[in-house]
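Limitations
The C-alpha coordinates in this dataset are predictions for the assembled complex, not deposited experimental models. Users should treat interface geometry with appropriate caution, especially where small molecules or nucleic acid strands are included. An illustrative entry is reproduced here so readers can see what is and is not provided.
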Amino acid sequence: SQTIHQWPATLVQPVGSPLSLECTVEGTSNPNLYWYRQAAGRGLQLLFYSVGIGQISSEVPQNLSASRPQDRQFILSSKKLLLSDSGFYLCALKERGTGNTIYFGEGSWLTVV
Amino acid sequence: GDSVTQMEGPVTLSEEAFLTINCTYTATGYPSLFWYVQYPGEGLQLLLKATKADDKGSNKGFEATYRKETTSFHLEKGSVQVSDSAVYFCALRKSGGGADGLTFGKGTHLIIQP
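Predicted assembly:
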Protein backbone atom coordinates (compact mmCIF):
# COMPACT_ATOMS: atom_id res chain seq x y z
CA SER A 1 0.00 0.00 0.00
CA GLN A 2 1.02 3.58 -0.49
CA THR A 3 2.73 5.67 2.18
CA ILE A 4 3.30 9.39 2.40
CA HIS A 5 6.24 10.93 4.24
CA GLN A 6 6.38 14.59 5.16
CA TRP A 7 9.17 16.55 6.80
CA PRO A 8 9.92 18.42 8.80
CA ALA A 9 7.05 17.55 11.13
CA THR A 10 7.27 20.91 12.86
CA LEU A 11 8.98 24.14 11.89
CA VAL A 12 9.27 27.59 13.44
CA GLN A 13 10.48 30.23 11.02
CA PRO A 14 10.85 34.02 11.20
CA VAL A 15 8.92 36.31 8.91
CA GLY A 16 10.79 36.87 5.66
CA SER A 17 12.72 33.60 5.79
CA PRO A 18 12.48 30.91 3.09
CA LEU A 19 10.53 27.68 3.39
CA SER A 20 10.85 24.19 2.02
CA LEU A 21 8.48 21.39 2.99
CA GLU A 22 9.07 18.04 1.40
CA CYS A 23 6.70 15.20 0.65
CA THR A 24 7.73 11.83 -0.73
CA VAL A 25 5.49 8.89 -1.49
CA GLU A 26 6.14 5.17 -1.72
CA GLY A 27 4.26 2.18 -2.99
CA THR A 28 2.71 3.85 -6.00
CA SER A 29 3.68 5.30 -9.36
CA ASN A 30 2.51 8.39 -11.20
CA PRO A 31 0.05 9.51 -8.52
CA ASN A 32 -1.78 12.81 -8.39
CA LEU A 33 -0.21 14.82 -5.56
CA TYR A 34 -1.74 17.64 -3.53
CA TRP A 35 -0.77 20.24 -0.95
CA TYR A 36 -3.47 21.33 1.49
CA ARG A 37 -3.29 23.87 4.27
CA GLN A 38 -5.29 23.75 7.46
CA ALA A 39 -5.41 27.09 9.21
CA ALA A 40 -7.06 27.63 12.57
CA GLY A 41 -10.82 28.01 12.19
CA ARG A 42 -10.67 27.83 8.39
CA GLY A 43 -10.82 24.16 7.53
CA LEU A 44 -8.75 22.62 4.76
CA GLN A 45 -7.79 24.52 1.65
CA LEU A 46 -6.32 23.01 -1.52
CA LEU A 47 -3.18 24.95 -2.45
CA PHE A 48 -1.57 23.01 -5.30
CA TYR A 49 -2.03 19.80 -7.23
CA SER A 50 0.15 17.92 -9.67
CA VAL A 51 -0.70 15.25 -12.20
CA GLY A 52 2.91 14.54 -13.17
CA ILE A 53 6.57 15.59 -13.03
CA GLY A 54 6.92 19.33 -13.54
CA GLN A 55 3.15 19.83 -13.78
CA ILE A 56 1.81 22.11 -11.07
CA SER A 57 -1.56 23.81 -10.80
CA SER A 58 -2.33 26.45 -8.22
CA GLU A 59 -5.76 26.77 -6.69
CA VAL A 60 -5.29 30.06 -4.85
CA PRO A 61 -3.01 33.05 -5.36
CA GLN A 62 -0.51 33.24 -2.56
CA ASN A 63 3.02 33.55 -1.31
CA LEU A 64 3.81 29.89 -1.85
CA SER A 65 4.97 27.76 -4.76
CA ALA A 66 5.21 24.03 -5.43
CA SER A 67 7.45 21.82 -7.50
CA ARG A 68 7.53 18.17 -8.50
CA PRO A 69 11.07 17.31 -9.55
CA GLN A 70 10.48 13.56 -9.40
CA ASP A 71 7.43 11.36 -9.75
CA ARG A 72 7.22 10.68 -6.02
CA GLN A 73 8.46 13.99 -4.65
CA PHE A 74 6.39 17.11 -4.07
CA ILE A 75 7.91 20.23 -2.52
CA LEU A 76 6.20 23.30 -1.09
CA SER A 77 8.32 26.46 -1.00
CA SER A 78 8.36 30.12 -0.22
CA LYS A 79 11.03 32.75 -0.74
CA LYS A 80 9.76 35.01 2.07
CA LEU A 81 7.32 33.75 4.67
CA LEU A 82 4.44 35.83 5.99
CA LEU A 83 2.73 35.50 9.35
CA SER A 84 -0.39 34.35 7.50
CA ASP A 85 1.52 31.33 6.15
CA SER A 86 1.34 29.67 9.57
CA GLY A 87 -0.71 26.50 9.58
CA PHE A 88 -0.75 22.74 9.21
CA TYR A 89 0.33 21.60 5.76
CA LEU A 90 -0.83 18.26 4.45
CA CYS A 91 0.48 16.38 1.46
CA ALA A 92 -1.94 13.98 -0.18
CA LEU A 93 -2.06 11.56 -3.08
CA LYS A 94 -4.53 9.83 -5.34
CA GLU A 95 -3.39 6.68 -7.08
CA ARG A 96 -3.91 6.35 -10.80
CA GLY A 97 -6.68 4.07 -11.93
CA THR A 98 -7.74 2.85 -8.50
CA GLY A 99 -10.81 4.90 -7.82
CA ASN A 100 -11.18 8.27 -6.22
CA THR A 101 -9.89 8.07 -2.67
CA ILE A 102 -7.33 10.63 -1.58
CA TYR A 103 -4.85 9.68 1.15
CA PHE A 104 -3.06 12.12 3.44
CA GLY A 105 0.34 12.32 5.07
CA GLU A 106 0.95 13.13 8.72
CA GLY A 107 1.30 16.84 8.10
CA SER A 108 3.84 19.55 8.86
CA TRP A 109 3.21 22.25 11.43
CA LEU A 110 4.56 25.64 10.37
CA THR A 111 4.65 28.58 12.76
CA VAL A 112 5.86 31.88 11.37
CA VAL A 113 7.02 34.29 14.09
CA GLY B 1 -19.19 26.22 -6.72
CA ASP B 2 -19.14 23.05 -4.69
CA SER B 3 -19.42 23.30 -0.92
CA VAL B 4 -19.79 21.16 2.19
CA THR B 5 -21.51 22.27 5.37
CA GLN B 6 -21.16 20.48 8.67
CA MET B 7 -21.81 21.29 12.30
CA GLU B 8 -18.63 22.78 13.72
CA GLY B 9 -18.94 21.93 17.38
CA PRO B 10 -17.34 21.21 19.65
CA VAL B 11 -19.71 18.34 20.19
CA THR B 12 -19.35 16.89 23.68
CA LEU B 13 -20.85 13.50 24.52
CA SER B 14 -20.55 10.92 27.24
CA GLU B 15 -19.05 7.53 26.52
CA GLU B 16 -21.55 5.06 24.98
CA ALA B 17 -23.81 7.86 23.72
CA PHE B 18 -25.23 7.88 20.19
CA LEU B 19 -23.44 10.17 17.76
CA THR B 20 -24.73 12.08 14.76
CA ILE B 21 -22.64 14.64 12.92
CA ASN B 22 -24.61 16.33 10.17
CA CYS B 23 -23.14 17.00 6.74
CA THR B 24 -24.86 18.49 3.70
CA TYR B 25 -23.36 19.35 0.37
CA THR B 26 -23.91 21.45 -2.72
CA ALA B 27 -22.52 20.16 -5.98
CA THR B 28 -23.47 19.61 -9.58
CA GLY B 29 -23.42 16.11 -10.93
CA TYR B 30 -22.70 13.07 -8.80
CA PRO B 31 -19.87 13.57 -6.34
CA SER B 32 -18.27 10.94 -4.16
CA LEU B 33 -18.60 11.63 -0.46
CA PHE B 34 -16.09 11.03 2.31
CA TRP B 35 -15.59 11.28 6.04
CA TYR B 36 -12.04 11.83 7.27
CA VAL B 37 -10.89 11.79 10.89
CA GLN B 38 -8.01 13.76 12.38
CA TYR B 39 -6.70 12.68 15.78
CA PRO B 40 -4.80 15.27 17.84
CA GLY B 41 -1.51 16.26 16.21
CA GLU B 42 -1.93 13.90 13.27
CA GLY B 43 -2.84 14.03 9.61
CA LEU B 44 -6.16 13.03 8.11
CA GLN B 45 -7.24 9.41 7.86
CA LEU B 46 -10.01 8.20 5.61
CA LEU B 47 -12.84 6.92 7.79
CA LEU B 48 -15.43 5.90 5.20
CA LYS B 49 -16.76 6.80 1.79
CA ALA B 50 -19.71 6.39 -0.57
CA THR B 51 -19.56 6.84 -4.31
CA LYS B 52 -23.21 6.85 -5.37
CA ALA B 53 -26.70 7.55 -4.08
CA ASP B 54 -28.00 5.20 -1.36
CA ASP B 55 -24.52 3.73 -0.78
CA LYS B 56 -23.67 3.25 2.89
CA GLY B 57 -20.06 3.63 3.99
CA SER B 58 -19.01 2.01 7.25
CA ASN B 59 -15.87 1.54 9.31
CA LYS B 60 -14.97 1.15 13.00
CA GLY B 61 -18.64 1.29 13.98
CA PHE B 62 -19.25 4.53 12.08
CA GLU B 63 -21.78 4.70 9.24
CA ALA B 64 -22.96 7.27 6.73
CA THR B 65 -25.50 6.96 3.92
CA TYR B 66 -25.33 8.96 0.69
CA ARG B 67 -28.75 10.67 0.43
CA LYS B 68 -29.07 12.45 -2.88
CA GLU B 69 -32.64 13.62 -2.22
CA THR B 70 -31.51 15.57 0.84
CA THR B 71 -27.90 16.12 -0.36
CA SER B 72 -26.67 14.75 2.95
CA PHE B 73 -24.05 12.35 4.31
CA HIS B 74 -24.57 12.33 8.06
CA LEU B 75 -22.07 10.41 10.20
CA GLU B 76 -23.47 8.13 12.92
CA LYS B 77 -22.17 5.78 15.57
CA GLY B 78 -24.27 3.86 18.03
CA SER B 79 -21.94 3.93 21.02
CA VAL B 80 -18.96 6.28 21.11
CA GLN B 81 -15.74 5.74 23.03
CA VAL B 82 -13.21 8.16 24.49
CA SER B 83 -10.81 7.11 21.72
CA ASP B 84 -13.24 8.55 19.15
CA SER B 85 -12.36 12.06 20.29
CA ALA B 86 -11.05 13.80 17.19
CA VAL B 87 -11.96 16.26 14.46
CA TYR B 88 -14.18 14.83 11.72
CA PHE B 89 -14.25 16.26 8.21
CA CYS B 90 -16.93 15.69 5.62
CA ALA B 91 -15.73 16.06 2.03
CA LEU B 92 -16.81 15.61 -1.55
CA ARG B 93 -14.94 14.91 -4.73
CA LYS B 94 -16.03 15.02 -8.33
CA SER B 95 -14.01 12.96 -10.75
CA GLY B 96 -12.71 14.29 -14.03
CA GLY B 97 -11.20 17.62 -14.92
CA GLY B 98 -10.17 20.63 -12.86
CA ALA B 99 -8.49 20.32 -9.51
CA ASP B 100 -9.55 16.74 -8.98
CA GLY B 101 -9.17 17.37 -5.28
CA LEU B 102 -11.48 17.36 -2.29
CA THR B 103 -13.85 20.04 -1.06
CA PHE B 104 -13.96 19.89 2.73
CA GLY B 105 -16.31 21.07 5.39
CA LYS B 106 -14.75 23.04 8.24
CA GLY B 107 -14.57 20.03 10.53
CA THR B 108 -16.44 19.00 13.68
CA HIS B 109 -14.51 18.69 16.92
CA LEU B 110 -15.85 15.71 18.88
CA ILE B 111 -15.06 15.33 22.57
CA ILE B 112 -16.05 12.13 24.36
CA GLN B 113 -16.01 12.22 28.14
CA PRO B 114 -15.63 9.05 30.24
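Some entries come with short summary sentences. For this one: Chain B has a mean pLDDT of 91.
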